[in-house]
Amino acid sequence: MVEKKLNDLFYDTLKDIYFAERQILKSLPKMAKAAKSAELRQAFLTHRDETEVHVERLQQVFEIAGKRAQGKTCEAIKGILEEGEEVMEEYSSSEALDAGLLAGGQAVEHYEMSRYGTLKTWATQLGMKDAASLFDQTLQEEKKTDALLSKLAQAGVNTKAA
Description:
single chain; mainly alpha; elongated
């Protein structure tokens, strides 16, 4: 059996986040539609547009790596998104819905930040400077979205839910 190296782990993780981003693209419009707050709805829609760019960047990284763009089922993101679906169902008529949507959105953001930070570091280690730059761009956007969601939570969403 051939020993696996960092490059193999990099590629597996790249496939993982590619799958995750494509699943997130499907979920963001549902989350936006469910949101009661206009600001939260807009944040989800804006991030959907950003996520389309994230998918394109990942496709560029696959090209840089000389691989075909393909996803690998990511159970972690599936679980996070399923929790979000449950919140939308169980709290649909509650003032706490937006707080739950925000929490789910931040869980997604934190997962993405973890993956992009790791991939950026590995790309640098593997001498893939252009890929590292692409990961950093996406990482900064994920951090910005996380900060916006925190701001919305503190600015009133959590208060309305209390």
